[in-house]
Amino acid sequence: MQAFIHPALTRLFDGIKSFQQRFYGLEPANMQQLVEQGQHPKVLLIACSDSRVDPALLMDAAPGDLYVLRNFANLVPPYSIEGKHDSACSAIEYAVRDLVVEHIIILGHAQCGGIHALLGTLSGHKPQRDFIGDWVKLAMDGCYRYVVDQLEGVEVNAGTVVREADVENLCLHQHLVERAAIRGSLDNLGGYPWIKERVAAGKLNLYGWWFDLENGDLWATNEDNSAFLPVIE
Prior knowledge:
Layout: H1 10-26, H2 28-37, E1 43-48, H3 55-59, E2 66-71, H4 87-98, E3 103-109, H5 113-122, H6 132-136, H7 140-152, H8 164-172, H9 174-189, H10 193-200, E4 205-211, E5 218-221, E6 228-230
Parallel strand pairs: 1-2, 1-3, 3-4
Antiparallel strand pairs: 4-5, 5-6
């Protein structure tokens, strides 16, 4: 008896068949090696869950190339081990301490729903959801550290009261907030002791990437994480 396939999922099952034909039919040795020797990716890629920005599709990656963590707005929580059960931190730890990746890329993108939710929260319209509002607040520190002080020309410290003018500017420059959130998550990565140790030893590199949905351009942080620069001309 054949399993029932909902019509809406037919295309996905066809995709599985195509994957089988390509990687098990045409390149069986590579898949067998991954089975027998396990995975050894060099890159941990932290991406958004957005359906329009699939890392493997964007980068034409093959099985075993990327260890991928995807969550709402591609955020990295600050390091904390007190009473936490966090899938993001667990995936990061496994990639760094067990798989020993050499590169971590945080991939954000334009028109991010998570950053839009953050801006709504800052505007006094917290989403009527159980988890989203509190999760996107993880991006708030980076938002103020890297955007508000530039737009307003003032130094912004933790605990500064949100001003209406700040929020208006942020909403007009969502792409800057998206990039700031990436830079804030890079800062958070630096707070993980075993990441900090490997970075200092020159064994691990951290990058921030931002993908423009409108034209397909990619922007990346420079060496000191102070700015985003275009990569593809």
